[in-house]
Amino acid sequence: MRYVLVGGSAAAVSALEAIRSVDKSGRIDLFSDENVPLFSRVLLPYYVAEELSKPLLNFRSADFFEENNITAHIGVRVQKIDPDSKTVTADDGNTYEYDKLLLATGGNAIIPKIPGVDKDGISTLKTMQDAERIYNFDGERAVVIGAGSIGVESCISLMRRGFRVTLLEQLGHVLPTVFDDEAAGIIRGVIEQMGIEVITGERAIEFTGNGRVQSVVTSTGEIECDNVILAVGVRPALELAEPAGIEIGMMGGITTDSGMLTSCQDIYAAGDVCETFDIARNQSFINAIWPMAVEQGHIAGLNMAGQDKQYAGSVRMNSIGNFIGIPAMSMGVTRSDECSYVDEECHFQEVKKRTKNTYKKIILKNGCIVGAIFIGVGQTQRCGIISILLRRQIEVSDYIQTLISNNLSFMDILPLLRRYGDKFTEPEYKELMDTGL
Ligand SMILES: Cc1cc2nc3c(=O)[nH]c(=O)nc-3n(C[C@H](O)[C@H](O)[C@H](O)COP(=O)(O)OP(=O)(O)OC[C@H]3O[C@@H](n4cnc5c(N)ncnc54)[C@H](O)[C@@H]3O)c2cc1C
Fold first, then answer.
1. 126 lines ligand 1 (CB under 6 A)
2. Is pLDDT larger for residue 278 or for residue 436?
3. pLDDT score of 63
4. Do 154 and 125 form a contact (C-beta atoms < 8 A)?
5. How far apart are CA 301 and CA 13, in angstroms?
6. What is the per-residue pLDDT for 437?
7. Residue 305 DSSP one-character state
8. Is 153 helix (H, G, I), strand (E, B) or coil?
């Protein structure tokens, strides 16, 4: 069997390990167009902040490929795939045959079409090359455009390096896809207390400067700066999938079935490049986070190696606590209107608990959890329980006051888990009982 994996990050490495757990001898060619292999993108903000050196970013050892008998083509880009001849062509000038192909090409950072966006001193933060560029930023003032997770982490990283930072977000609140406005209000306060200027509801419309950026012109003013980080989102990297005629879904990612197979025979996809069934939203969605890429890569790899595994679906989860200094995490949807309606009988309920510095919210659809937000000291400790209940869509109506309380313990929900034991596989149930989450 010949396997080709395109991408060398979370999804591809997880797939590779899954393949090797089944097939010890098949030939595996892995391609990554980044020159540095096996680094964790999640840790790039720490590198930018000068808090982690490059070797500490690695999530596998240097001899990983050799140990797993992988032919790794590092710094080599696959230019084309041909599903008819079952080949891929790379920019090293060679063509490689496959029996099973994985597209784990991730996402490309979006570069907004703003006049002056190509000036020196402006960068996205996606690749190691981007991180090195930002690491070498010099100056005193920086603007970060986009207040999603990467934007917030970027501005705190630069602030820790001594920059005076402005965070600019065109929507009404920070972290708009990750928290609701109430949670975002608390987080904004924390960020501002760090000395970061936060501007919401305002758009960047031009970058000025003669060669090098000198200011960001916004819809109402101008912010002088030496550097800019663009953090306005990522878009699935479809340069291979689209020309090959592979089906793209409504959200702009590669469509996959529950076995991570694309619309093309023997071509699988996993990670940020693809759409999967989102359990909370009840629709196909891109949940571009590391743990989901790992899960999807695992299922894809097992199926590529001949097994028959189904992916139960993905759930968005984000935690920003390490950066802002107080626990803050969310999962699933942040508001009930983000869910697609199954029918008119759908009943939504939002249960909230708020103190000055803490906030907890659980969103239910027909008695099952579809989203949750936890902010503040002591609030995130038992969120593993909430995550299990969400992922298994367990009916929790009778338990909602227990779940929202501050002293939720595993014993409190034990009867519930026992009642719905059939929603878990035997090993999962055993692990749950052994670990107590
Ligand atoms: C700064 C930053 C911080 C993040 N923080 C978090 C976090 O805290 N928690 C979290 O869960 N997630 C976080 N994420 C998201 C997480 O990193 C991604 O979800 C995860 O990396 C997705 O893995 P992937 O394997 O699907 O794709 P990627 O990690 O994007 O890897 C795809 C790889 O494929 C390569 N490639 C693409 N096309 C080709 C080609 N044609 N030929 C060869 N190689 C190709 C790309 O260059 C890239 O190296 C963060 C992302 C960034 C950028």
1. yes
2. 278
3. 96
4. yes
5. 9
6. 64
7. T
8. helix
To 10 degrees, the CA torsion angle through 391, 392, 398, 404?
-20
Q: Which residue has the tokens 């992922």?
A: 391
User: Residue 341: its pLDDT value, please?
Assistant: 64
Tell me the domains of the chain and their CATH numbers.
Answer: 2-107+235-304 (3.50.50.60), 122-232 (3.50.50.60), 326-434 (3.30.390)
pLDDT at residue 138 above 80?
Answer: yes
Per-residue pLDDT at 342 = 61
Residue bearing the CA closest to ligand 1, atom 33: 7
Average pLDDT, the chain: 95
| Whether the CB of 274 sits within 6 Å of ligand 1 | no
Say if CB 228 and CB 207 are below 8 A apart: yes
Q: What span, in angstroms and rounded, lies between the C-alpha atoms of 407 and 290? A: 29
Beta bridge partners of 70: 28
> Closest residue (by CA) to atom 3 of ligand 1?
42
- Say yes or no to pLDDT of 339 above 90: no
How far is residue 417's CA from residue 423's CA, in Å, rounded to a whole number? 9
Compute the half-sphere exposure of residue 312: CA atoms within 13 Å on the CB side of its CA: 12
For residue 86, give both structure tokens.
């079952």
Mean pLDDT confidence for 87-96: 98
**Ligand 1: nearest atom to the Cα of 271:** 26
Has residue 83 got a pLDDT over 80? yes
Range with the lowest mean pLDDT among 200-204, 251-255, 383-387? Answer: 383-387
CA of 280 to the centre of ligand 1 (A): 23
d(CA 47, CA 56): 9
**Residue tagged 């959200």 (tokens):** 251
Q: Does the beta carbon of 288 sit less than 6 angstroms from any atom of ligand 1?
A: yes
**Which of helix, strand or coil describes residue 322?**
helix
**Per DSSP, what are the bridge partners of residue 269?**
103
pLDDT at position 177 is 94
